[in-house]
Write a structure and sequence with these properties.
The protein contains eleven helices and ten strands. The chain is α+β, with helices and mostly antiparallel strands. The strands form three sheets. Strands 1-2-3-5-4 form a five-stranded antiparallel beta sheet, with no helix packed on it. The chain has two domains: about 100 residues, Phosphorylase Kinase, domain 1 (2-Layer Sandwich), CATH 3.30.200.20; about 230 residues, Aminoglycoside phosphotransferase (APH), C-terminal lobe (Aminoglycoside 3'-phosphotransferase, Chain: A, domain 2), CATH 3.90.1200. Strand 8 and strand 9 form a beta hairpin. The structure holds 2-acetamido-2-deoxy-1-O-phosphono-alpha-D-glucopyranose and magnesium ion.
Length: about 375
C-alpha cells in the first residue's frame, strides 16, 4: 500500500484489474476512475482508485501466503479499531482506516473467489523502499516504536497467527536445508552453505543471550521504510501500514527489520551485494527513533538481545529468499530470473555488516 506507483510483474494468481462491482460493494458510487496499481510489496496486489465520494486503496490478499484471510481480517479490525479509539490523533499509528462493505463486513469475496479489503487513501504522503536521510530513518523507527507501545494493552484473546512460525530462525533454516536437498546441483550451493553456517551460529548466540525468555508482545513484523507513509510537508511519519503480519511475537523482529531496512541507502536486491554499506548516521537514527517511539517499553532482557536483532532478522530473510529461489520463486514476487538469489546475496552480506555493528547498537541502547 505504498503511495508511489511502481510497475510490477503480474503473475496469474494476482489480478491485473479490479472486480467490476468492487467499489459498490464498499458503498462507493461507481465507477472508479484512475485505477492504478501501486505499492512495492512482494505479496498482495494493491490498487489506488478514485470514486466520486472517496479516494481509496483496494487490496487483494494473497491467499497462498495468508491461508486464513478471515483470521487476518479479524486481527486488522481489532488492531485498527483499538488504535483509532485509544491514541492521540497526531500519532502515525492511527492513520489507517478500513472501510466496511454495504453489509458492514471488513472484506468482500469477489465472484472469482478473490479476497478484497479497502482502505481510505492517506493523502499527501509518500513512502520509499529506502531511507532518504537519517531524519527519515528516525521517523520510520519512531513510528514502529510507537506502534509496539500503543498495542501493549490490546484487549481480548491472542491475535490469530497469520503466518505460523513467521520469525522462527530455526524453522527458516530447516526449510532452506530441505529446499536445498530437493534441488541438488543448484548453483546457489555456496550461498546455502553461507546462510546455514551463519544462521546456526546466530541461533546459538541468540539462545545464549536469553532470546527464548523475551516477553511476547503484539508486534508489526514487517518494519521497513515502505510501510510508513511520510507527510509530504512536515516529513513526519503519518501512517503505519501493512498490518497483515501483526501478531504476537518479540520486539526482536521489529527492531531487527528496522536495522535491516533503514540503516543504509541500498536496495534489498542490490547488485553486487558488496556494494551495500551501512550508514552510521542512519543506524544511530534508527535506534534513537525506536527508543523515542517505544518509550519505557523496552525491558532489560530485550536490551540484552536487541544488538543481535539486525543480523538475525536479515539472515532469516536471506534464508527465506534463498529457499524461494530453490523452490522456483513461488512466494515472493520476482521481476527477473535469479531475483530471489540476488536478494538473498544482498541480505547475507547485510547480515554480516549488521553483526559487526552489534556493539554500536548495544551502546546506543544503553
Ligand atoms: C514481504 O510483501 P511485503 O513487501 O510487505 C514479506 C516480509 C519481508 C519483506 C521483504 C508476508 O513483505 O516478511 O520482510 O517482503 N512479507 C511476508 O521486503 O512474507
Ligand atoms: Mg508486508
Amino acid at each position: 500500500m505504498t503511495q508511489d506507483p511502481s510497475p510490477s510483474a503480474d503473475p496469474p494468481d494476482r489480478p491485473a484489474e479490479l472486480p467490476r462491482d468492487l467499489g459498490a460493494q464498499f458503498g462507493l458510487a461507481a465507477p472508479a476512475s484512475r485505477v492504478v496499481r501501486i505499492g512495492a510489496g512482494h505479496i498482495n496486489a494493491t490498487f489506488s482508485a478514485h470514486y466520486v465520494s472517496a479516494h481509496v486503496v483496494h487490496q487483494r490478499i494473497n491467499e497462498t501466503v495468508f491461508r486464513d484471510p478471515v483470521g487476518l481480517m479479524d486481527n486488522l479490525v481489532r488492531v485498527t479499531d483499538h488504535l483509532r479509539e485509544r491514541i492521540p490523533e497526531t500519532s502515525p499509528c492511527r492513520g489507517l482506516e478500513l472501510l466496511r462493505t454495504r453489509d458492514g463486513a471488513a472484506y468482500h469475496i469477489a465472484e472469482d473467489g478473490g479476497f478484497w479489503r479497502t482502505f481510505r487513501f492517506v493523502e499527501a504522503t509518500r513512502a520509499t523502499t529506502q531511507v532518504e536521510s537519517p531524519e527519515h530513518a528516525f521517523e520510520v523507527a519512531r513510528a514502529f516504536g510507537e506502534f509496539a507501545h500503543w498495542l501493549q494493552d490490546l484487549p481480548g484473546p491472542a491475535l490469530c497467527e497469520t503466518i505460523p512460525r513467521f520469525h522462527d530462525l530455526g524453522h527458516r533454516l530447516e526449510a532452506l536445508r530441505q529446499a536445498s536437498d530437493a534441488a541438488p546441483g543448484d548453483p546457489a550451493g555456496a550461498e546455502v552453505e553461507g546462510v546455514l553456517v551463519f544462521g546456526q551460529a546466530l541461533g546459538e548466540r541468540l539462545a545464549a543471550a536469553g532470546a527464548v525468555a523475551l516477553p511476547r508482545r503484539v508486534v508489526h513484523n514487517d518494519c521497513k521504510p515502505s510501510n510508513v507513509l511520510i507527510d509530504r510537508d512536515s516529513a513526519r511519519a503519518r501512517c503505519v501500514i501493512d498490518l497483515d503480519t501483526v501478531m504476537e511475537g518479540s520486539l526482536l523482529a521489529d527492531f531487527g527489520d528496522l536495522l535491516r531496512s533503514a540503516t543504509h541507502r541500498g536496495a534489498e536486491d542490490a547488485r553486487p551485494a558488496a556494494s551495500l554499506r551501512l550508514d552510521d548516521a542512519c543506524l544511530e537514527a534508527v535506534v534513537r527513533g525506536y527508543r523515542a517511539g517505544a518509550g519505557s517499553l523496552l525491558s532489560d532482557a530485550e536490551r540484552a538481545v536487541l544488538p543481535l536483532a539486525g543480523a538475525v532478522i536479515t539472515l532469516e530473510l536471506a534464508a527465506r529468499f534463498l529457499t524461494d529461489h530453490l523452490q522456483g520463486d513461488v512466494y515472493f514476487r520476482v521481476a527477473r530470473p535469479g531475483h530471489n538469489l540476488d536478494r538473498a546475496r544482498a541480505q547475507l552480506h547485510l547480515a554480516r555488516l549488521l553483526d559487526a555493528s552489534g556493539d554500536a547498537v548495544r551502546g546506543l541502547l544503553a
